[in-house]
Each structure stands twice: as structure tokens, then as C-alpha cells.
Amino acid sequence: MPTATTTKHDTPGGDAPPPPPLPNPSTGSANPAASLPALWGYLQPALDHMVRSPTNSPAKAPAIEVSYHMGVHTAVYNYFTSQSEQSPGPGAFRAPASDKGKASGTDLYDQLDRYYADAARELLLAAPPDDAALVHYLVPCFHRFSAGAQAVSRLLNYVNRHYVKRAVDEDRGWLRLADVLDAVARTIQEDDTREKIQRRLRERRTEELRKFGYLDGASPADIARTEEYAEAASPPDRVVHLSALAYRRFRIEVLEPLLAVPKIKGKGKKKKPPQNGDRPAMPKGRLARSVKELLEAEGGDEGERQRLASGLAVMLRTCGVKNDHPLRKKLDKFIPPPEPATT
């Protein structure tokens, strides 16, 4: 999948026209909403086009025709509606408890999660073996993946509104009541009202968001963006919005292997630390080594170095790497400050 990160600098002749919108595939008399395999067969060409196809503009996903977009929305809506209307009659076979919810969107959501996992693993496998080239590969690669993820999230917004929102309301989202209950319970007084308890729960949620850069007085758009970072940082069993679902898979399948520190091999007695107070050089993960080479290289284009460092910082933040991570601390200073709001 390395072609997905092609830029205009890699193509002869500079800017090339964008690929034409993907047409609506013919389904004949088949009903795309009849089953998950039928629905997925109808959806996958659009997903592949948006997420995986080559493009000369990594920051913008290739488009699909309006009729295809409308067809996808209709098929997903009909699939959810038909599944929710199915209810076993008296004496009919009832699915086991572990299968509950499959008929209301979990199956499609899980299929999307597997799709993003496969796409992210392809990107990792295509990464160059040279540490010095890794950063130059990752930044446009993530831009392309992110553009596709955002396009798919818009295309399948019905899944966000119908399935994800309900899952969050049912305490299956990125932050669950059990995650904060112990901390809140220690502050609850016997005479506290329900409103006070709810306020403490909101305060605890805000404390969690601070780990991802939340600031007091942030705009609703900034709060939503910060919550997307927190969603991307959550474990895979938490239900999150589709864009965060993609970023979480990018973190798990691409970033975590590259951030992993190799284990020191060999047996024998451990060496004593030096007496002069200098710490011995510790092994670093591939991405940390690549960043070190980028920032410490002599000469070269300083503007390009700044651009790559900023792109890496945005990638780590977007995929849910917390702001106290050593690599984020090193790279966040390269993110340009937000532009002041115009009145």
C-alpha cells in the first residue's frame, strides 16, 4: 500500500488531476441491506477508494459519486432498520446473550474495526527499513490514512448517530462509569444530591480529558477534538466514533510497534551504573531513533524538518498518545500555535 502516500513531488509533471469520483456499483436486483455480507460487498469499494487508493493529495481522500454516497446511506439505514425490526416470535430460537446487539450495528462496527486493522497493518509492512527514511514515510502516510478515515466517518455518519451514540449512552464508550466511580465515590458525602454527584462525574471526565490537552474555556469544537484523541487512546473494547476507531487502529497496529523498545538480549550479571552520574544509553524504539536522526541531522532543509516534526506531533496526538509521553514532549513544541479567532 505504499502508493497511498504518493505526493505531487513523486509524480512527473507536478500536479495531476484528481481521480474521477468512484461510480455507484451496479447491484442488479440484489438488496445490499439483506445481510452483512451483502452490505459489506456494497460498501467495501467505497472504503477502498477513500482509504487505500493512490492519490496526488494525501490530505484529501478520493471522492465517490453522489449517487453512490446516497446509496450507501440508504443501504446502511435499511440494514439497521430491518435488523431492529426482526424479533423472534413465541417459541422461536433466541440468540444467546453474547450475540445481543449484533442485529443493531455491532456486526458492521466490528467489520469496520477489522478493516482499519488490516489497512493499518499494510502500512506498517510497507514502512522502509531505514530509520532515517521512516519519518518521511509516516507523515504523508498518516495524512492519507486520516483523510480516508474522516471521509468514511462522514459517509457512515448514520453508524455514529445510531450505533455509537447509543453505545455511549449505555456506558460502553471510551470512558465508563466504572473507570471513574472509585475516585468519585471517595468524595461523595452522605447528604450529596444527585446533581452534586453528576457534577463530580463531569469533573472527573474533565480530568481525564486534560491528559489529552483539554484546556479550560475551550470551544465546543476543541472539546470534541480532544475527546476524539481520548477515544483513540481507549482500549479496543470501547465503542468510539468511526474516525477515532481508525486512529485507534493506527496507534495499535502502526505506532505501538514502532514505539516499542527492543528488549536487551544476553545473559550474565547486570553492569553497575557508571559512578560519574551519567546514565547509560538505553535502547530506543524505531520511531524514537528516527526522530532523533531527524532533529539532530546537520544541514538540510530546516523548513522540511519543522514540517515533519510537526506532522509527527499531530499524528501522535491524534492517535491518542498521551501528552506526557517522552516523544510527544519532544515534538509538541513544533506544532504551530492555533490561529486567533476572528470576530
Automatic annotation (TrEMBL):
PROSITE patterns: FIDO
Biased composition (Pro residues): 15-24
Coiled coil (residue ranges): none
Start and end residues of each Fido domain: 64-203
InterPro entries (alphabetical): Cullin_repeat-like_dom_sf (IPR016159), Fido (IPR003812)
SUPFAM superfamilies: Cullin repeat-like
Region described as Disordered: spans on this chain: 1-33, 265-286
Protein name: Fido domain-containing protein
Taxonomic lineage of the native organism: Eukaryota, Fungi, Dikarya, Basidiomycota, Agaricomycotina
